[in-house]
Every structure is written in C-alpha cells, then in structure tokens.
Amino acid sequence: MASRSTEYTTAIVPVTLTGASYRLAHDSCHRAALLWNQAVNWVHGEWKAKRSPNKYDIQGFLNSIPRQDRPLHAHTTLDNRSRSLRGHNHS
Questions:
Q1: Going residue by residue through the chain (91 aa), what tens digit of pLDDT does each one get?
Q2: Which DSSP letter does residue 76 get?
Q3: Cα-based angle 31, 48, 53 (whole degrees, multiple of 5)
Q4: How far apart (Å, rounded) are the C-alpha atoms in residues 89 and 7?
Q5: CA pair distance 51, 12, nearest whole angstrom
Q6: CB count, 10 Å around CB of 62?
Q7: 0.85 cut: is pTM over it?
Q8: Is the CB of residue 59 less than 8 Å from the CB of residue 77?
C-alpha cells in the first residue's frame, strides 16, 4: 500500500482590524483554546483509564458537548456522516 502524505502551507498576511473585529477574533481564540483544553483533559482521563482514544473517539467527545458550550463552527468536530448531510464533505 502506497503511503499518502499531505503538505500544508501557511500564509502570514498582515491585516488591520477594527476594535470590534479585534475583540471578536480575540474572544474566538479564547473559545477555541477552552475547547482544546476540554479535549485534552478528556484524552488524559481516557489514558488514565487505560484506554487509547482515536481521532473518531475524540470527535465523538467533542460532538457530545452541548452546542451552546461549543459555539465554534469547526468541520473537524463533525463526524463524516454529519459532514455529508450538511454538504461539508471535505475529505
């Protein structure tokens, strides 16, 4: 079986934000960090319980968080079935 690799490129683009846009971006960054921390804490709990969660287990955990507690729109927190139903099929 041939290996498949993906190359990612990041562009750094300077932008000027209004005060309101800056606050929105700043608050979104904090919400993303809080969601990340929840996922990391959950994985650590799984490891302590001698389980080895995979990508789909983590996605399942993130999907189990009530929407009001994960206000970010992120394709990575949707399972494949949800993505295809919503037209967000980014394989």
A1: 556 778 888 899 999 999 999 999 899 888 889 889 999 999 999 999 999 999 999 989 988 988 887 766 555 445 444 444 344 444 3
A2: G
A3: 65
A4: 20
A5: 38
A6: 19
A7: no
A8: yes
